[in-house]
Amino acid sequence: MPAVQTQPGLVRAVQTQPGLVRAVLLLAALAAAVLLFARPPPVWRARALAYAPADLCESRLKPANANLTHPVRAAFVVLARNSELHTLRASIRQLEDQFNARHRYPYVFLNDEPFTAEFKQAMEWATTGDCHFGFVPYEHWSMPPWVDRPRALWAMRAMGATVPYGGSESYRKMCRFESGFFYRHPLLDEYDYYWRVEPGVEFTCAIPYDPFKYLADTGKLYGFAISLREFPATVRTLWATTNAFRAAYPEYIAANNTLRWLTTPGGEYNMCHFWSNMEIASLAFFRSPEYEAYFDFLDRAGGFFLERWGDAPVHSLAVAMFLRKSQVHFFDIGYHHPPFQNCPTDPEFNARHCFCNQNRSAIHNSDSCTRAWLELGPSNA
Ligand SMILES: Nc1nc2c(ncn2[C@@H]2O[C@H](COP(=O)(O)OP(=O)(O)OP(=O)(O)O)[C@@H](O)[C@H]2O)c(=O)[nH]1
Ligand SMILES: *[C@@H]1O[C@H](CO)[C@@H](O)[C@H](O)[C@H]1NC(C)=O
Ligand SMILES: *[C@@H]1O[C@H](CO)[C@@H](O)[C@H](O)[C@H]1NC(C)=O
Ligand SMILES: *[C@@H]1O[C@H](CO)[C@@H](O)[C@H](O)[C@H]1NC(C)=O
Ligand SMILES: [Mg+2]
Protein backbone atom coordinates (compact mmCIF):
# COMPACT_ATOMS: atom_id res chain seq x y z
CA MET A 1 0.00 0.00 0.00
CA PRO A 2 2.56 2.56 -1.10
CA ALA A 3 -0.01 5.34 -1.67
CA VAL A 4 -1.12 5.23 1.95
CA GLN A 5 2.50 5.30 3.11
CA THR A 6 3.51 8.38 1.10
CA GLN A 7 0.66 10.50 2.42
CA PRO A 8 1.78 10.33 6.08
CA GLY A 9 5.37 10.78 4.84
CA LEU A 10 4.43 14.10 3.23
CA VAL A 11 2.51 15.18 6.32
CA ARG A 12 5.50 14.28 8.45
CA ALA A 13 7.77 16.33 6.18
CA VAL A 14 5.45 19.33 6.53
CA GLN A 15 5.41 18.93 10.26
CA THR A 16 9.13 18.33 10.72
CA GLN A 17 10.50 20.75 8.08
CA PRO A 18 8.16 23.76 7.99
CA GLY A 19 11.08 25.93 6.84
CA LEU A 20 11.57 23.89 3.67
CA VAL A 21 7.92 23.99 2.78
CA ARG A 22 7.73 27.70 3.39
CA ALA A 23 10.74 28.16 1.12
CA VAL A 24 9.13 26.06 -1.63
CA LEU A 25 5.87 28.02 -1.36
CA LEU A 26 7.74 31.31 -1.41
CA LEU A 27 9.69 30.27 -4.52
CA ALA A 28 6.47 29.22 -6.25
CA ALA A 29 4.85 32.53 -5.38
CA LEU A 30 7.91 34.40 -6.63
CA ALA A 31 7.93 32.47 -9.88
CA ALA A 32 4.23 33.24 -10.37
CA ALA A 33 4.87 36.92 -9.68
CA VAL A 34 7.73 37.02 -12.18
CA LEU A 35 5.60 35.35 -14.85
CA LEU A 36 2.64 37.62 -14.20
CA PHE A 37 4.18 41.02 -13.66
CA ALA A 38 7.85 41.26 -14.60
CA ARG A 39 7.64 41.61 -18.37
CA PRO A 40 11.06 42.29 -19.82
CA PRO A 41 11.88 45.95 -20.41
CA PRO A 42 10.72 47.29 -23.78
CA VAL A 43 14.12 47.17 -25.46
CA TRP A 44 14.54 43.50 -24.70
CA ARG A 45 10.96 42.75 -25.62
CA ALA A 46 11.44 44.41 -29.00
CA ARG A 47 14.66 42.51 -29.52
CA ALA A 48 13.11 39.18 -28.60
CA LEU A 49 10.48 39.72 -31.27
CA ALA A 50 13.07 40.33 -33.94
CA TYR A 51 13.67 37.67 -36.49
CA ALA A 52 14.83 37.38 -40.04
CA PRO A 53 12.67 34.84 -41.85
CA ALA A 54 14.89 32.30 -43.57
CA ASP A 55 13.15 32.79 -46.90
CA LEU A 56 14.08 36.49 -46.82
CA CYS A 57 17.80 35.82 -46.37
CA GLU A 58 19.53 34.50 -49.44
CA SER A 59 23.18 33.74 -50.15
CA ARG A 60 24.46 33.60 -53.68
CA LEU A 61 27.88 32.04 -53.61
CA LYS A 62 30.23 32.17 -56.56
CA PRO A 63 31.78 28.76 -57.35
CA ALA A 64 35.11 30.45 -58.13
CA ASN A 65 35.29 31.65 -54.50
CA ALA A 66 34.71 28.22 -53.00
CA ASN A 67 38.27 27.76 -51.75
CA LEU A 68 39.04 31.41 -51.15
CA THR A 69 40.32 32.32 -47.70
CA HIS A 70 40.57 35.91 -46.53
CA PRO A 71 43.09 37.17 -43.98
CA VAL A 72 40.22 38.76 -42.04
CA ARG A 73 36.58 37.76 -41.59
CA ALA A 74 35.14 40.85 -43.22
CA ALA A 75 32.38 42.02 -45.53
CA PHE A 76 30.96 45.10 -47.21
CA VAL A 77 27.63 46.02 -45.68
CA VAL A 78 25.21 47.84 -47.93
CA LEU A 79 21.83 49.10 -46.77
CA ALA A 80 19.85 49.95 -49.90
CA ARG A 81 16.46 50.14 -51.52
CA ASN A 82 15.55 48.27 -54.70
CA SER A 83 15.15 51.63 -56.42
CA GLU A 84 18.84 52.40 -55.80
CA LEU A 85 20.01 49.52 -57.99
CA HIS A 86 21.69 51.69 -60.63
CA THR A 87 23.43 54.22 -58.38
CA LEU A 88 24.64 51.34 -56.22
CA ARG A 89 25.87 49.39 -59.23
CA ALA A 90 28.05 52.35 -60.23
CA SER A 91 29.53 52.58 -56.72
CA ILE A 92 30.23 48.87 -56.54
CA ARG A 93 31.87 48.78 -59.95
CA GLN A 94 34.32 51.44 -58.74
CA LEU A 95 34.91 49.63 -55.47
CA GLU A 96 35.63 46.43 -57.37
CA ASP A 97 38.00 48.13 -59.83
CA GLN A 98 39.87 50.08 -57.16
CA PHE A 99 40.07 47.35 -54.55
CA ASN A 100 37.90 44.31 -54.36
CA ALA A 101 38.56 42.53 -57.63
CA ARG A 102 41.94 41.68 -56.09
CA HIS A 103 40.40 40.50 -52.77
CA ARG A 104 36.88 39.25 -53.45
CA TYR A 105 35.50 40.11 -50.02
CA PRO A 106 31.80 39.25 -49.69
CA TYR A 107 28.88 41.67 -49.61
CA VAL A 108 25.91 41.78 -47.28
CA PHE A 109 22.98 43.72 -48.72
CA LEU A 110 20.24 44.73 -46.30
CA ASN A 111 16.79 46.16 -46.93
CA ASP A 112 13.60 46.75 -44.96
CA GLU A 113 11.73 45.33 -47.96
CA PRO A 114 12.52 42.11 -49.84
CA PHE A 115 15.09 42.61 -52.58
CA THR A 116 13.80 42.04 -56.09
CA ALA A 117 15.20 39.31 -58.32
CA GLU A 118 16.48 42.05 -60.62
CA PHE A 119 18.41 43.72 -57.79
CA LYS A 120 19.98 40.48 -56.67
CA GLN A 121 21.01 39.51 -60.19
CA ALA A 122 22.54 42.94 -60.83
CA MET A 123 24.58 42.82 -57.62
CA GLU A 124 25.74 39.31 -58.32
CA TRP A 125 27.02 40.42 -61.71
CA ALA A 126 28.61 43.63 -60.44
CA THR A 127 30.64 41.94 -57.71
CA THR A 128 33.48 39.45 -57.45
CA GLY A 129 32.74 38.51 -53.83
CA ASP A 130 29.88 36.30 -52.66
CA CYS A 131 26.56 38.09 -52.18
CA HIS A 132 24.23 37.76 -49.21
CA PHE A 133 20.82 39.43 -49.23
CA GLY A 134 19.08 40.08 -45.94
CA PHE A 135 15.76 41.38 -44.76
CA VAL A 136 15.61 43.81 -41.85
CA PRO A 137 12.80 42.83 -39.47
CA TYR A 138 10.16 45.32 -38.44
CA GLU A 139 11.45 45.52 -34.86
CA HIS A 140 14.77 46.85 -36.16
CA TRP A 141 13.18 49.30 -38.53
CA SER A 142 10.46 51.11 -36.64
CA MET A 143 9.57 53.71 -34.07
CA PRO A 144 9.71 51.71 -30.84
CA PRO A 145 6.46 51.38 -28.88
CA TRP A 146 7.71 53.45 -25.93
CA VAL A 147 8.19 56.61 -28.02
CA ASP A 148 5.35 59.12 -27.76
CA ARG A 149 4.20 58.93 -31.37
CA PRO A 150 2.12 62.15 -31.52
CA ARG A 151 5.04 64.04 -30.00
CA ALA A 152 7.42 62.50 -32.55
CA LEU A 153 5.15 63.42 -35.45
CA TRP A 154 4.87 66.93 -34.12
CA ALA A 155 8.67 67.17 -33.87
CA MET A 156 9.05 65.95 -37.45
CA ARG A 157 6.61 68.53 -38.72
CA ALA A 158 8.35 71.26 -36.73
CA MET A 159 11.81 70.31 -38.05
CA GLY A 160 10.40 69.83 -41.54
CA ALA A 161 12.51 71.42 -44.21
CA THR A 162 14.91 73.28 -41.90
CA VAL A 163 17.44 70.41 -42.04
CA PRO A 164 17.92 67.56 -44.54
CA TYR A 165 15.36 64.80 -43.93
CA GLY A 166 13.96 66.84 -41.01
CA GLY A 167 10.42 65.68 -41.76
CA SER A 168 11.21 62.09 -42.71
CA GLU A 169 10.18 59.17 -40.53
CA SER A 170 11.90 56.56 -42.71
CA TYR A 171 15.20 58.43 -42.46
CA ARG A 172 14.89 58.24 -38.68
CA LYS A 173 14.24 54.51 -38.86
CA MET A 174 17.36 54.21 -41.01
CA CYS A 175 19.43 56.18 -38.47
CA ARG A 176 18.17 54.03 -35.60
CA PHE A 177 18.90 50.87 -37.55
CA GLU A 178 22.42 52.03 -38.45
CA SER A 179 22.99 53.05 -34.84
CA GLY A 180 21.88 49.94 -33.04
CA PHE A 181 20.89 47.05 -35.25
CA PHE A 182 22.92 46.53 -38.41
CA TYR A 183 25.64 44.63 -36.56
CA ARG A 184 23.07 42.23 -35.05
CA HIS A 185 21.80 40.99 -38.39
CA PRO A 186 22.39 37.22 -38.54
CA LEU A 187 24.08 37.56 -41.94
CA LEU A 188 26.89 39.48 -40.16
CA ASP A 189 27.45 36.81 -37.53
CA GLU A 190 30.36 35.29 -39.40
CA TYR A 191 32.31 38.55 -39.76
CA ASP A 192 34.62 40.54 -37.48
CA TYR A 193 34.97 43.69 -39.62
CA TYR A 194 32.72 45.57 -42.01
CA TRP A 195 32.98 48.34 -44.54
CA ARG A 196 29.87 50.42 -45.07
CA VAL A 197 29.02 51.28 -48.66
CA GLU A 198 26.14 53.46 -49.87
CA PRO A 199 24.52 53.87 -53.27
CA GLY A 200 25.98 56.80 -55.21
CA VAL A 201 29.40 56.99 -53.57
CA GLU A 202 32.60 56.99 -55.61
CA PHE A 203 36.00 55.48 -54.96
CA THR A 204 38.37 57.81 -56.72
CA CYS A 205 41.75 56.14 -56.14
CA ALA A 206 43.20 52.67 -56.21
CA ILE A 207 43.34 51.14 -52.74
CA PRO A 208 46.61 49.20 -52.95
CA TYR A 209 46.42 47.57 -49.52
CA ASP A 210 43.78 45.75 -47.49
CA PRO A 211 42.08 48.11 -45.00
CA PHE A 212 40.47 45.21 -43.13
CA LYS A 213 43.83 43.57 -42.62
CA TYR A 214 45.33 46.91 -41.63
CA LEU A 215 42.78 47.26 -38.82
CA ALA A 216 43.31 43.69 -37.69
CA ASP A 217 47.12 43.93 -37.80
CA THR A 218 47.23 47.18 -35.85
CA GLY A 219 44.48 46.33 -33.36
CA LYS A 220 42.50 49.38 -34.44
CA LEU A 221 38.73 49.28 -34.16
CA TYR A 222 37.31 52.16 -36.17
CA GLY A 223 38.26 53.88 -39.42
CA PHE A 224 36.82 56.90 -41.24
CA ALA A 225 37.57 59.02 -44.33
CA ILE A 226 35.57 62.22 -43.73
CA SER A 227 34.50 64.09 -40.62
CA LEU A 228 32.07 67.00 -40.43
CA ARG A 229 29.85 68.99 -38.10
CA GLU A 230 26.26 67.94 -37.43
CA PHE A 231 23.17 70.17 -37.78
CA PRO A 232 22.56 71.23 -34.15
CA ALA A 233 18.77 71.07 -34.57
CA THR A 234 18.98 67.29 -35.07
CA VAL A 235 20.82 66.55 -31.79
CA ARG A 236 19.44 69.06 -29.28
CA THR A 237 19.54 66.65 -26.32
CA LEU A 238 22.00 64.02 -27.59
CA TRP A 239 24.88 65.45 -25.57
CA ALA A 240 22.83 65.78 -22.38
CA THR A 241 21.62 62.20 -22.83
CA THR A 242 25.20 61.07 -23.42
CA ASN A 243 26.29 62.81 -20.23
CA ALA A 244 23.49 61.04 -18.37
CA PHE A 245 24.78 57.76 -19.79
CA ARG A 246 28.33 58.60 -18.65
CA ALA A 247 27.03 59.34 -15.17
CA ALA A 248 25.06 56.08 -15.07
CA TYR A 249 27.87 53.87 -16.47
CA PRO A 250 31.19 55.48 -15.45
CA GLU A 251 32.88 52.07 -15.67
CA TYR A 252 32.33 52.02 -19.44
CA ILE A 253 34.19 55.25 -20.17
CA ALA A 254 37.77 54.62 -21.32
CA ALA A 255 40.50 56.19 -19.24
CA ASN A 256 42.23 57.71 -22.27
CA ASN A 257 39.13 58.48 -24.27
CA THR A 258 38.88 61.03 -27.08
CA LEU A 259 35.90 63.03 -25.83
CA ARG A 260 38.04 66.16 -25.98
CA TRP A 261 37.88 65.94 -29.80
CA LEU A 262 34.17 66.68 -29.81
CA THR A 263 33.74 69.03 -26.89
CA THR A 264 33.95 72.83 -26.79
CA PRO A 265 36.11 74.56 -24.16
CA GLY A 266 32.82 75.08 -22.29
CA GLY A 267 32.14 71.33 -22.19
CA GLU A 268 29.39 71.29 -24.81
CA TYR A 269 29.17 69.11 -27.94
CA ASN A 270 30.99 70.81 -30.82
CA MET A 271 29.02 68.80 -33.44
CA CYS A 272 32.10 66.97 -34.78
CA HIS A 273 31.44 63.48 -36.05
CA PHE A 274 32.92 60.86 -38.34
CA TRP A 275 30.82 60.69 -41.49
CA SER A 276 29.45 57.20 -41.06
CA ASN A 277 28.42 56.57 -44.67
CA MET A 278 32.01 55.37 -45.08
CA GLU A 279 33.38 53.50 -42.13
CA ILE A 280 35.62 50.46 -41.92
CA ALA A 281 35.39 49.10 -38.44
CA SER A 282 35.36 46.23 -36.01
CA LEU A 283 31.99 44.62 -35.37
CA ALA A 284 33.20 43.63 -31.91
CA PHE A 285 33.28 47.33 -31.06
CA PHE A 286 29.54 47.62 -31.74
CA ARG A 287 28.73 44.29 -30.14
CA SER A 288 30.50 45.28 -26.92
CA PRO A 289 28.52 45.67 -23.67
CA GLU A 290 29.40 49.37 -23.50
CA TYR A 291 28.19 50.14 -27.02
CA GLU A 292 25.00 48.15 -26.54
CA ALA A 293 24.33 49.84 -23.21
CA TYR A 294 24.86 53.23 -24.86
CA PHE A 295 22.53 52.45 -27.76
CA ASP A 296 19.81 51.10 -25.43
CA PHE A 297 20.14 54.21 -23.28
CA LEU A 298 19.70 56.49 -26.30
CA ASP A 299 16.93 54.36 -27.77
CA ARG A 300 14.93 54.56 -24.57
CA ALA A 301 15.34 58.34 -24.52
CA GLY A 302 13.55 58.38 -27.88
CA GLY A 303 15.73 61.01 -29.58
CA PHE A 304 15.98 59.05 -32.82
CA PHE A 305 12.36 60.10 -33.34
CA LEU A 306 11.69 63.00 -30.97
CA GLU A 307 14.69 64.72 -32.57
CA ARG A 308 16.62 63.29 -35.52
CA TRP A 309 19.71 61.74 -34.01
CA GLY A 310 21.96 60.51 -36.81
CA ASP A 311 23.96 57.33 -36.66
CA ALA A 312 27.08 59.39 -37.44
CA PRO A 313 27.09 61.40 -34.19
CA VAL A 314 25.98 58.31 -32.25
CA HIS A 315 28.85 56.19 -33.60
CA SER A 316 31.25 59.09 -33.06
CA LEU A 317 30.24 59.76 -29.46
CA ALA A 318 30.66 56.06 -28.75
CA VAL A 319 34.12 56.06 -30.34
CA ALA A 320 35.04 59.14 -28.32
CA MET A 321 33.88 57.58 -25.03
CA PHE A 322 35.14 54.03 -25.49
CA LEU A 323 38.29 54.24 -27.63
CA ARG A 324 41.75 55.74 -27.42
CA LYS A 325 43.08 57.81 -30.29
CA SER A 326 45.39 54.99 -31.37
CA GLN A 327 42.41 52.67 -31.87
CA VAL A 328 40.92 54.93 -34.55
CA HIS A 329 42.30 55.37 -38.06
CA PHE A 330 41.92 58.08 -40.69
CA PHE A 331 41.76 56.19 -44.01
CA ASP A 332 43.14 58.75 -46.45
CA ILE A 333 41.45 57.03 -49.42
CA GLY A 334 39.74 58.52 -52.46
CA TYR A 335 36.11 58.61 -51.43
CA HIS A 336 33.22 60.81 -52.56
CA HIS A 337 29.76 60.90 -51.03
CA PRO A 338 28.21 64.01 -52.54
CA PRO A 339 28.65 66.77 -51.60
CA PHE A 340 31.88 65.92 -49.73
CA GLN A 341 34.93 63.92 -50.59
CA ASN A 342 38.30 62.88 -49.34
CA CYS A 343 41.12 63.00 -51.84
CA PRO A 344 44.52 61.71 -50.70
CA THR A 345 47.04 64.33 -49.68
CA ASP A 346 50.22 62.70 -51.01
CA PRO A 347 50.73 64.37 -54.43
CA GLU A 348 52.68 61.48 -55.94
CA PHE A 349 50.12 58.88 -54.86
CA ASN A 350 47.37 61.17 -56.06
CA ALA A 351 48.94 61.67 -59.48
CA ARG A 352 49.52 57.96 -59.99
CA HIS A 353 46.35 56.42 -58.56
CA CYS A 354 43.50 58.94 -58.35
CA PHE A 355 41.00 60.86 -60.40
CA CYS A 356 40.10 63.37 -57.68
CA ASN A 357 41.36 66.90 -57.04
CA GLN A 358 43.05 67.25 -53.66
CA ASN A 359 41.99 70.90 -53.49
CA ARG A 360 38.38 69.72 -53.19
CA SER A 361 39.04 67.48 -50.22
CA ALA A 362 36.73 68.05 -47.24
CA ILE A 363 39.77 68.34 -45.02
CA HIS A 364 40.12 71.96 -46.29
CA ASN A 365 36.51 72.71 -45.30
CA SER A 366 36.03 74.64 -42.07
CA ASP A 367 33.33 72.12 -41.11
CA SER A 368 35.80 69.23 -41.24
CA CYS A 369 37.11 67.98 -37.90
CA THR A 370 39.79 65.73 -39.37
CA ARG A 371 42.73 68.09 -38.80
CA ALA A 372 41.64 68.53 -35.20
CA TRP A 373 41.50 64.74 -34.93
CA LEU A 374 44.99 64.28 -36.37
CA GLU A 375 46.40 67.01 -34.13
CA LEU A 376 44.69 65.73 -31.01
CA GLY A 377 47.26 65.68 -28.25
CA PRO A 378 47.69 63.00 -25.61
CA SER A 379 44.79 62.40 -23.31
CA ASN A 380 44.94 63.97 -19.88
CA ALA A 381 41.66 62.30 -18.87
N1 LIG B 1 16.27 49.79 -47.60
C1 LIG B 1 16.28 51.08 -47.29
N2 LIG B 1 17.45 51.74 -47.25
C2 LIG B 1 17.43 53.05 -46.95
C3 LIG B 1 16.25 53.75 -46.64
N3 LIG B 1 16.57 55.03 -46.36
C4 LIG B 1 17.90 55.12 -46.48
N4 LIG B 1 18.44 53.94 -46.84
C5 LIG B 1 19.85 53.62 -47.04
O1 LIG B 1 20.53 54.15 -45.93
C6 LIG B 1 21.72 54.76 -46.32
C7 LIG B 1 21.70 56.22 -45.92
O2 LIG B 1 20.64 56.88 -46.57
P1 LIG B 1 20.89 58.17 -47.47
O3 LIG B 1 19.61 58.52 -48.12
O4 LIG B 1 22.09 57.96 -48.33
O5 LIG B 1 21.20 59.25 -46.34
P2 LIG B 1 22.40 60.27 -46.25
O6 LIG B 1 23.67 59.60 -46.68
O7 LIG B 1 22.36 60.85 -44.89
O8 LIG B 1 22.00 61.40 -47.23
P3 LIG B 1 22.13 61.49 -48.84
O9 LIG B 1 23.08 60.43 -49.28
O10 LIG B 1 22.59 62.87 -49.07
O11 LIG B 1 20.73 61.22 -49.34
C8 LIG B 1 21.86 54.52 -47.81
O12 LIG B 1 22.64 53.34 -47.97
C9 LIG B 1 20.45 54.29 -48.26
O13 LIG B 1 20.41 53.43 -49.36
C10 LIG B 1 15.01 53.02 -46.70
O14 LIG B 1 13.93 53.54 -46.44
N5 LIG B 1 15.09 51.69 -47.02
C1 LIG C 1 38.33 23.59 -54.16
O1 LIG C 1 39.06 22.59 -53.49
C2 LIG C 1 38.58 21.26 -53.76
C3 LIG C 1 39.35 20.26 -52.87
O2 LIG C 1 40.72 20.62 -52.82
C4 LIG C 1 38.76 20.97 -55.26
O3 LIG C 1 38.27 19.69 -55.55
C5 LIG C 1 38.00 22.02 -56.05
O4 LIG C 1 38.22 21.83 -57.46
C6 LIG C 1 38.41 23.42 -55.67
N1 LIG C 1 37.53 24.37 -56.32
C7 LIG C 1 37.98 25.48 -56.96
C8 LIG C 1 36.93 26.36 -57.56
O5 LIG C 1 39.15 25.77 -57.03
C1 LIG D 1 46.54 56.49 -20.40
O1 LIG D 1 47.63 57.20 -20.96
C2 LIG D 1 48.73 57.35 -20.11
C3 LIG D 1 49.73 58.25 -20.80
O2 LIG D 1 50.01 57.80 -22.10
C4 LIG D 1 49.28 55.97 -19.75
O3 LIG D 1 50.35 56.10 -18.85
C5 LIG D 1 48.17 55.13 -19.12
O4 LIG D 1 48.64 53.81 -18.92
C6 LIG D 1 46.95 55.08 -20.03
N1 LIG D 1 45.86 54.39 -19.37
C7 LIG D 1 45.13 53.45 -19.94
C8 LIG D 1 44.08 52.81 -19.09
O5 LIG D 1 45.28 53.10 -21.10
C1 LIG E 1 45.21 73.30 -56.16
O1 LIG E 1 45.38 74.58 -55.60
C2 LIG E 1 46.69 75.11 -55.80
C3 LIG E 1 46.81 76.40 -55.01
O2 LIG E 1 45.65 77.20 -55.23
C4 LIG E 1 46.94 75.30 -57.30
O3 LIG E 1 48.24 75.79 -57.51
C5 LIG E 1 46.78 73.93 -57.97
O4 LIG E 1 46.91 74.09 -59.37
C6 LIG E 1 45.45 73.31 -57.65
N1 LIG E 1 45.43 71.95 -58.17
C7 LIG E 1 44.47 71.51 -58.96
C8 LIG E 1 44.60 70.09 -59.41
O5 LIG E 1 43.51 72.17 -59.29
MG1 LIG F 1 24.02 58.70 -48.45
Automatic annotation (TrEMBL):
Organism: Coemansia nantahalensis
Protein name: Uncharacterized protein
